[in-house]
Amino acid sequence: MAVGYKTPGVYIEEKNAFPNSVVAVPTAVPVYIGYTQQATKSGKSIIGKPTRITSLVEYMQYFGGAPGYSLEMKDVGEEATANSFPLGDKNYEIGKDDADAMNNFLLFDALRLFYFNGGGPCYIVSVGTFKGGKVEKDALLGGVKKLEFEEEPTMVLSPDALSLEPADYYSVATAILAHCKKMQSRVGIFDVHNGWAWEDGEGKDLINGEGGFREGIGTNFLNYGAAYYPWLNTNVVTENQLTYQNIKDHGTVLKDALSAEADILYPVTEGEGLSPEQEKSNAKNEEFKKELEGLADDTYTADQVEALNQKLMTISPTYKGIIMKEMLARLNLLPPAPAMAGVFTSVDNYRGVWKAPANVSLNSVISPSVNINADQQEDLNVPLNGKAVNAIRTFPGQGVIVWGSRTLDGNSQDWRYIPVRRTLIFLEMSIKAAAKAYVFEPNTSATWSLMNNMITNFLTSVWKAGGLAGSSPGEAFNVQVGLGTTMTANDILDGYMRVTVLVAPVRPAEFIVITFQQKMQES
């Protein structure tokens, strides 16, 4: 009682019956650092400002949509290649236009892949708009620095960094690892640069080679990161997002190719006395090529472009069955990290952060860009340097499956597994937030008892949910605080209250060994 009563009457005093409780912090809130079409909220610029969104619709409201896709259709001559298709006496290839900077911006499609795989609330750090036309390392590094003032994010990704040169990409990746270590509340999810193949165009191993992933990612703070390989063939980008205008020089190379198709489908016969079939073929050829004239007309409105595109889809089997599919295949080759951020979110929501985000299928994914077998995965999963790269594989009857759950610190018994790393982050951040209520409280046995009870109650609930191993709470965790156990008299004089928490996190059964042995007949 702060003051004594002096006036006769009835007084009421309320006393707390229960100690403070630990509130579980969110575990699946990724942050994406990259470039956007725009960056405005309530009429004000939000470039460089971490912004929380809850859906793709909200993203588009603040940050706009996709960049303009640009593809190049190349005449590769008479010699066929692995990726070419023939038309007339020529062969053609379709790939991304390397000269068009719009192809460098991956954030929008990465975010769609995140939401297709169970994503939820996330943060966007726009470091610039598409108008700049270039992905810059320093801008992305600046975006990482902006995250130091945000407490909620638990995963960090930068899909646009994959458009940098390998050395610059790994500079951004190591900066993300250092940031995660500093904050101690999040992990980085990474991709292998150009990881749609085993080797680059010069035959260099993209993972183990000079300047490859394992060399580029460094050796610091590896337990705060996880990597996935290979890139994925997805169906995120659809036909209705593309027209012939997405092909560079469509008025020349595409027109020439489809003209050759017209001559194949509807041969032209000259002279007199033509049969009805010949006359019909000549008319069809003329009609087909008349439509192709529109490919070179740059004055078409959006409606006219769409009408011509639909016409081409109708009259040209090559345009619909080959060219459009090749365009979609190139644009739908996406890095796996955004999909894994969605998997992390989904698994956390339905099972808990302690469940390994593995042995689950991926949505909106057709196949991995590289088929990996068990022998090939050995070096990915258990390398001598410990820098594990988690494989995404295809299994008959199961589809595309995440088949790995290791951090980059694979040689560490403490931090080898992603769910162990993330469970400890979850426990640490939850208890840290609750303990703030006791800062500047008397450093006495009464406060120690409250702290002990608060943490014990929280860890008991986590154990009951399956997040800690042990047949009883005593086997799952231990909480100690007090003079003579965790503190000395000098600690108390110096203002320190030390609490020791021992936990037994659950670990995934990564290798299941079933032993069979014959026994002798008994009757």
Tags for this model:
523 residues, alpha/beta, Rossmann fold, 3 domains, eight-stranded mixed sheet, four-stranded mixed sheet, 15 helices, 19 strands, elongated
* Largest sheet entry: 8 strands, mixed
Helical residues, percent: 25-40%
SS content category: alpha/beta
Number of domains: 3
Q: Span from first to last CA?
A: 84 Å
Number of strands: 19
SS element count, helices = 15
Report Rg: 30 Å
Mean pLDDT value: 93
Task: Report the uncertain regions.
Answer: none
Can you tell me the CATH architecture of the largest domain?
3-Layer(aba) Sandwich
Strand content: 15-25%
Examine the coordinates and then state which fold CATH places here, giving the name of the CATH topology of the largest domain.
Rossmann fold
> What global shape is seen?
elongated
Could you give the order of strands across the largest sheet?
Answer: 4-8-1-9-10-11-16-17
